[in-house]
Structures
1.
Amino acid sequence: MKLYLSLSTLNVFGVLDFAKSYLRDIEQFIESQIKKNEDLSRTLNPFEQVQKNIFDEEFDKDAEVYYKIELIKNYPNLFRSSLFVSLFSYLESILMKECKQNQFLLQDEFPNKGSTLDKIKGYLSENLHSNYNFSTSREWNEIKKYQLVRHCLAHADGNLKLLKDDKEIKNLSKFIAENNEIITLVENDESVEIFIKEGFCESFIELIGTFLVDLIDVGRGG
């Protein structure tokens, strides 16, 4: 089947290897910045700072230090969230590209309902009669769970309180609770926000790779 032969010739796995290398470099940078954060924190006594006059020159210097600390605290989640959303979009784009190429050759209809992943699954199953069993595939079902995280980050700024679908919130909360070592929630009065830990993006990269290998293997009759 052309879809799988085409996928096997793409430099998909090279891109995933590059993403892993890039991620390792950034995680090392984050670790070094967290160390700096700890060093900066030890130089400040929050109670004493409150007593200072806001026009005091020393207050300005300390305010800059506080700003740097907050920046370092928030950066890891911002970076990992951005990389994850990019990786998810990459997965969708390569699969969609293959489906569209086949659609052009076969002159058939492409599904127009559901999410991008639902359309891809529908086209592969119904139009190309793929033997890949989406319903029983652990990788596909895991990708669908990661899709909940991607949707919340992209459409609700990572805040579960901004999601409108109760079922989606329940399923997302369950996924996060089951994977607390790589993703968690930070709650306050105004928000319940996703915080992505080290290991989350690495896990997703491995998942993408395994899924694509299986997809290609099934297409080859493996």
Note: Residues 2-219 form one domain.
2.
Amino acid sequence: MKTHLKTKLRICLSILLLMFSISAVYAQDFSARDIEGNWTRDDGMKISILGTANFEEGGNALVMAVGKSGWPSSTEHYAFKYRKIKHAGGNTWKGVNYRHRVETNARIEDGEAVFIMSDDKKSFRASGYTYRKNQ
């Protein structure tokens, strides 16, 4: 009877250790720079994020291509989609969202943007869009 109980305990302990080791492998550390680079969303808008780890005020996301986003092509390489992007911890960044206002042909602040990065660091969600890292 005692041998059977010891065997069960060893099996349970082995399974528990296996679970901890698997979760440690999949646990991901994030740094402020992980969001830097070139990103594309499904409608073709491309942004380039820089400065999140370098500047106290945070980084910026420059519009590189507008795709079918509704932003005019004159904003390419000129306007920012997001500003003041700062690492909030873990897989989260916060910044200021900008949108293009067709009526006045200007960009206006449109509230806080929260960026949630995937564990594999190949995409993030912000302002209702998914951005994928360019290779």
Note: The beta strands are 37-41, 46-50, 59-65, 80-89, 92-101, 106-117, 123-126, 129-133.
